[in-house]
Design the sequence.
C-alpha cells in the first residue's frame, strides 16, 4: 500500500502539470544510508522522512550515529533537494536516493551524457548496455554532465536529476571493487537508473558506487564498487541535487532540452587561455619537424602508436583517423609560408610529392596505413580515412592553385578516388564503413557516412563537377533519415563500434558543409539538421570540472575538464577531438541567434590549450608540441596508468591536427567561398 502510494505521488509530482506541495520530492523518494565499520561489512538503513520546521528528518528504525536532514526548494526548472548529514559519532557512510517514475522501464530511453544513450544497444556485450543489465549506476566523473535522464517515448515526458557539485576533490582507494573506504575527502557521487518492479527509477547518491559492474578498461566489465567516506564526530556534509520534469517531442528534443538546461545550471566559464593562438601554433609546429620521417618511399610525420615516454618516431604512416599525415603536411605547408619557414615548406612538399608518386593503390585509393618497420600495410580501407585524406589533398591543391602552382597528376588521382566514391555509395546514400581495393564491401555499416560528405562538397567546389554535390546530397538524405532523424549516432570512429561523439560531430559538420555550398532554401534545411546533430555532439563535452586526487598528474597540473569531450561508450576518456566543431558552433550561433553555442565554443577553444607541452612544462610527454591524446580523467585505464594520467601509447598526429584546425577558424567557409 505504501509503495503504490509513493509511486502514485511520484507520478503526480513529476507529471509535468504541477510539482505539488513543498516536500513532495523528498517524500516521493526512498532514502538509504549505509554505514561501514572498518573490517566489517556495511549495513544499509532505510530512512523515513518525518516533517518538522520546514524540513524533513530522515530517520531509521533505530538510533544511528548520524543525523540526516533534507530540505526542498521549488523553482521554475524543478526542485532543489538538499541533504545535510552530520556525524554524531565517527562514521563511514554512503547515502542514496531512489525516485520511481510511472514509466514502463523496458520502453524508456535513458541519458547519462557522454556515456549512455537510450539503452546503449549499439555497444558490444563487453561494454555497459541493456544487453548486460537494465539498471546501472556510475561515478559522476564518468559523465560529461553529472546527470541522469529518463525519457518515456509513450508519453513524451522525461525526468532528470542533476548533481550540484560545486568545487570538488577526490581521494585514492586501495581497492578497485567491493566496499572501499576512501583515503580522504571526495566530492564524487554516483547517478544512474534502475528497474523497480517494472517501472523506471532514478538512482543517485554519495559517495560513488558503480553497479552492477565497474567499467574501468576497454571492453572489460569488472566487479562493482561501493565507496564510503569518513565523517569525524561533529562534521557535516551537505549534498544537493536538482530534480526536473518536462516533455519532449522525441529523444533528440530530450537531449537538446537537457543540454540547454544543464548548460544554464552549470554555466561553464572559459578558462583563461594559457597560450595565444600564435604561441600554440609555434609550439605545435615542433611536432612537424621532430616527427617527420624521410627514409622511406612515403615521407610522413610519425604520429600513431608512439610512446609518451620518448615520442620516438616509428614506421607507421597513417593518412587519416589518428595519424592525419596529409592534414598535418598541409598545415605545415601553410604555416611555413606564413612564417617564412623553409624547413616546414620543404618537409610538407616532400610529403605531398611522395604520396603523389607512391601513395596510391592499384585500385586508386590512398594507401591508408603502412607499417614500414614490418613491411606491411592494410588491404582493408575505410571511408573515414580515405575521406580525411582526400579532404587534406583538396586543401593542398586549392592552396597551391591560389598561389599559381598546379599539380595535374595529383588532381587526376584525387578525381579517381572521388569517382570510386560514387561507385561505393549505396542507393540509400550511405557509404560502407570498410571495403577493399577492388571496392568490395567488408563492413556495410553506414555510421561513417558523414565523413564522406566533406570531401564530396569540397570536390564540387574545386572541380565544379555537380556529380559530387549530388552524391553529397544523397548522403544528407541518408543522414537525415537514418542518423540524425533517428538520433542514432554510431560507428564513426574506427577503434570502436558503438555510440560515439565523432558520429554526431561529423554529422553536424557534414550538414554545415552542405549549408555553405547550398542555395538559400537548402541552406536553411541543412542548418536545421546541423543544429540537431550538434546537440548530440555537445552532450559529449564536459560542462563541469571533474576533481582529481593529490598525486594524480592531471589534477596537479590544474586541468579543468570543462570543454573537453568524452570519446565513446567503449572508450571513457577525454580528448581534444574538435577539428572544425568550434567553427560549426560559431556559425550555428550566428544562424540561430544561439548564444550558448558561441559561448561554449569559447570554452572549448580555451580549455583545450591547457596541456600544451612546452619545454618548461611538458605535461607528461617527452617532447614539446606532441600534444597528449588519451587523457584519463575518470576511473579508466586504457592500458596503463589510470585516472589522472595518460595511457603510455598515444597518437599525437591527430591531436595536433585537431588543435590546428581549431586554431584556424573558418577554413571551410573560405574554401567553399573560393577564397
Sequence:
Amino acid at each position: 500500500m505504501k509503495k503504490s502510494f509513493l509511486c502514485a505521488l511520484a507520478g503526480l509530482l513529476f507529471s509535468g502539470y504541477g510539482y505539488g506541495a513543498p516536500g513532495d520530492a523528498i517524500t516521493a523518494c526512498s532514502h538509504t544510508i549505509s554505514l561501514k565499520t572498518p573490517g566489517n561489512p556495511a549495513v544499509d538503513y532505510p530512512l523515513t522522512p518525518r516533517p518538522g520546521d520546514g524540513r524533513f528528518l530522515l530517520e531509521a528504525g533505530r538510533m544511528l550515529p548520524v543525523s540526516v536532514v533534507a530540505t526542498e526548494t521549488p523553482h521554475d526548472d524543478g526542485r532543489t533537494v538538499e541533504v545535510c548529514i552530520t556525524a554524531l559519532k565517527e562514521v563511514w557512510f554512503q547515502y542514496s536516493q531512489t525516485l520511481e517514475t510511472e514509466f514502463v522501464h523496458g520502453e524508456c530511453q535513458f541519458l547519462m551524457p557522454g556515456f549512455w544513450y537510450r539503452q546503449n544497444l549499439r555497444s558490444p556485450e563487453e561494454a555497459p548496455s541493456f544487453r548486460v543489465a537494465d539498471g546501472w549506476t556510475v561515478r559522476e566523473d564518468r559523465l560529461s554532465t553529472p546527470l541522469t535522464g529518463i525519457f518515456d517515448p509513450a508519453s513524451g515526458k522525461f525526468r532528470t536529476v542533476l548533481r550540484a557539485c560545486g568545487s570538488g576533490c577526490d581521494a585514492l582507494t586501495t581497492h578497485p571493487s567491493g566496499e572501499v573506504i576512501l583515503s580522504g575527502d571526495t566530492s564524487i557521487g554516483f547517478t544512474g537508473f534502475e528497474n523497480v518492479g517494472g517501472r523506471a527509477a532514478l538512482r543517485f547518491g554519495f559517495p560513488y558506487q558503480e553497479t552492477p559492474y565497474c567499467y574501468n578498461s576497454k571492453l572489460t566489465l569488472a566487479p562493482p564498487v561501493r565507496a564510503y567516506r569518513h565523517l569525524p564526530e561533529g562534521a557535516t556534509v551537505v549534498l544537493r541535487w536538482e530534480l526536473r520534469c518536462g516533455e519532449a517531442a522525441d529523444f533528440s528534443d530530450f537531449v537538446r532540452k537537457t543540454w540547454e538546461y544543464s548548460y544554464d545550471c552549470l554555466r561553464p566559464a572559459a578558462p583563461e587561455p594559457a597560450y595565444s593562438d600564435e604561441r600554440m601554433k609555434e609550439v605545435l609546429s615542433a611536432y612537424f619537424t621532430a616527427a617527420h620521417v624521410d627514409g622511406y618511399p612515403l615521407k610522413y610525420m610519425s604520429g600513431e602508436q608512439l610512446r609518451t615516454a620518448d615520442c620516438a618516431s616509428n614506421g607507421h604512416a597513417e593518412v587519416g583517423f589518428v595519424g592525419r599525415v596529409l592534414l598535418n603536411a598541409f598545415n605545415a605547408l601553410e604555416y611555413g609560408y606564413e612564417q617564412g619557414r623553409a624547413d616546414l615548406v620543404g618537409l610538407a612538399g616532400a610529403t605531398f610529392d611522395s604520396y603523389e608518386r607512391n601513395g596510391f593503390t592499384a585500385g586508386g585509393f590512398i594507401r591508408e596505413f603502412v607499417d614500414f618497420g614490418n613491411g606491411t600495410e592494410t588491404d582493408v580501407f575505410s571511408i573515414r580515412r580515405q575521406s580525411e585524406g582526400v579532404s587534406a589533398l583538396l586543401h593542398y591543391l586549392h592552396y597551391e592553385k591560389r598561389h599559381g602552382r598546379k599539380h595535374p597528376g595529383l588532381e587526376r588521382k584525387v578525381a579517381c578516388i572521388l569517382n570510386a566514391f560514387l561507385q561505393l555509395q549505396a542507393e540509400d546514400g550511405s557509404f560502407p564503413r570498410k571495403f577493399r581495393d577492388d571496392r568490395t564491401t567488408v563492413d556495410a555499416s553506414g555510421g561513417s557516412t558523414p565523413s564522406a560528405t566533406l570531401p564530396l562538397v569540397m570536390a564540387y567546389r574545386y572541380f565544379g563537377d555537380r556529380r559530387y554535390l549530388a552524391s553529397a546530397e544523397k548522403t544528407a538524405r541518408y543522414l537525415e533519415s537514418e542518423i540524425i532523424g533517428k538520433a542514432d549516432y554510431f560507428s564513426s570512429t574506427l577503434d570502436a563500434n558503438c555510440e560515439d561523439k565523432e558520429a554526431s560531430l561529423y554529422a553536424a559538420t557534414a550538414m554545415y558543409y552542405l549549408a555553405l555550398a547550398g542555395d538559400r532554401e537548402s541552406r536553411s534545411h541543412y542548418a536545421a539538421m546541423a543544429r540537431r546533430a550538434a546537440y548530440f555532439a555537445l552532450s559529449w563535452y564536459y560542462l563541469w570540472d571533474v576533481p582529481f586526487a593529490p598525486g594524480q598528474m592531471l589534477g596537479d597540473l590544474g586541468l579543468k575538464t570543462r570543454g573537453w569531450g568524452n570519446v565513446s561508450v567503449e572508450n571513457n576518456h577525454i580528448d581534444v577531438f574538435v577539428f572544425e566543431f568550434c567553427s560549426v558552433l560559431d556559425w550555428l550561433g550566428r544562424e540561430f541567434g544561439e548564444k550558448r553555442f558561441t559561448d561554449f565554443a569559447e570554452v572549448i577553444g580555451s580549455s583545450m590549450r591547457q596541456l600544451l607541452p612546452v619545454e618548461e612544462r611538458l605535461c607528461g610527454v617527452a617532447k614539446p608540441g606532441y600534444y597528449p591524446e588519451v587523457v584519463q580523467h575518470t576511473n579508466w585505464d586504457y592500458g596503463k596508468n589510470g585516472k589522472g594520467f595518460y595511457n603510455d601509447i598515444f597518437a599525437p598526429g591527430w591531436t595536433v591536427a585537431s588543435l590546428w584546425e581549431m586554431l584556424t577558424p573558418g577554413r571551410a567557409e573560405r574554401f567553399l567561398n573560393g577564397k
